[in-house]
Task: inverse folding
């Protein structure tokens, strides 16, 4: 008997609904692991509309966007602004075409960057690897803020360099020969996968990556749906993730930061030295906002108890950390793949599950609860 679908896995509905004052919810189809749709929100004002997270790149998404806008009596040229909550393709796909054809303004956090960090940011060489700015302070806020500030220089340099086509080719070639940080030289990607990444990083990048015309930071104010919305920088799921808060109506656009029934993916390859710690801080940050009446997620249905859901997600990860500790006691010294196969069900095994396992193991190491070394195959192994 198959398990019922989580709401984030439901296929996109063709219905356009007003979920808050001057805010329309439009579902766009996507087919990604664990997801069946993305919510594109249209914020109506006297000049037209701002849309949030216009789906994946591609013709099918564009046709869905046109259909949903038409249902709302909007034309593409009526969309004067696109806001991207974070740098995953299912959230910025339609932005390129809107900007190219209609001059639409594209807004994202200043840390917006598609692709992982350069090799200069993290070098895992053993138990002393991955030293960073946290020191011994365990306070999430200081850790998260100093973390991203310390790495913004590398991020912005990478972003500038990737505008050069020759640098994009060189970077893609390096990535083909560089396995994930927890893997060894023998774990390089298969040639087919490498060539797919090569095409995306060189030719595809210029076609689907939107030009950000306006960068925002935490605390900035945007005028949307005739009201003032406050930008909340919420690093964790990605380094650049933002949410938007409207104190007047209590509406809160939560993006992928807080989802109603699944936990967002926290990957280990990031401009954040400890993505999980930053995520905990960001969950605390939004959980402390007292006047939220309705959360509007990027996947799934709107929900009421933002603080309660943020706490539940934190508790899920605390349980994961305890589970990893028990697995480590049972396995002894083991690599990320071995931990991953005990932590996740077989249907979920793969790069994403490995990356999330690695993020949790690195969090434990940086907290002094684990040690890491390279084995004779060059893979990271952990002692808990």
Result:
């Amino acid at each position: 008997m198959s398990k019922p679908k989580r709401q984030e896995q439901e296929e996109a509905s063709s219905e356009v609904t007003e979920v808050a004052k001057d805010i329309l919810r439009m579902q766009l189809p996507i087919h990604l692991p664990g997801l069946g749709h993305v919510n594109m929100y249209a914020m109506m004002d006297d000049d037209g509309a701002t849309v949030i997270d216009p789906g994946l790149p591609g013709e099918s998404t564009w046709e869905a966007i046109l259909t949903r806008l038409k249902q709302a009596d909007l034309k593409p040229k009526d969309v004067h602004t696109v806001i991207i909550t974070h740098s995953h393709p299912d959230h910025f796909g339609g932005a390129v075409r809107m900007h190219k054809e209609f001059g639409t303004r594209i807004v994202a956090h200043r840390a917006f960057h598609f692709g992982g960090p350069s090799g200069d940011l993290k070098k895992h060489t053993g138990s002393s690897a991955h030293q960073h700015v946290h020191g011994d302070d365990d306070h999430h806020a200081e850790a998260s803020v100093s973390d991203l500030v310390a790495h913004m220089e590398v991020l912005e340099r990478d972003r500038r360099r990737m505008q050069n086509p020759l640098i994009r080719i060189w970077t893609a070639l390096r990535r083909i020969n560089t396995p994930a940080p927890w893997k060894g030289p023998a774990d390089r990607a298969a040639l087919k996968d490498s060539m797919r990444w090569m095409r995306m990083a060189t030719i595809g990048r210029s076609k689907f990556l939107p030009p950000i015309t306006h960068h925002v930071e935490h605390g900035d104010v945007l005028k949307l749906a005739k009201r003032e919305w406050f930008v909340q920088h919420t690093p964790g799921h990605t380094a650049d993730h933002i949410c938007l808060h409207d104190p007047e109506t209590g509406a809160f656009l939560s993006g992928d930061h807080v989802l109603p029934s699944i936990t967002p993916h926290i990957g280990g390859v990031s401009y954040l030295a400890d993505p999980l710690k930053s995520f905990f801080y960001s969950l605390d940050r939004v959980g402390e906002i007292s006047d939220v009446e309705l959360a509007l997620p990027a996947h799934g249905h709107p929900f009421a108890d933002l603080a309660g859901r943020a706490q539940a997600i934190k508790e899920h990860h605390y349980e994961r950390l305890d589970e990893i500790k028990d697995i480590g006691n049972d396995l002894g010294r083991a690599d990320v793949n071995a931990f991953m196969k005990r932590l996740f069900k077989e249907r979920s095994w793969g790069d994403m599950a490995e990356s999330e396992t690695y993020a949790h193991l690195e969090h434990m190491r940086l907290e002094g609860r684990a040690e890491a070394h390279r084995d004779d195959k060059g893979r990271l192994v952990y002692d808990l």
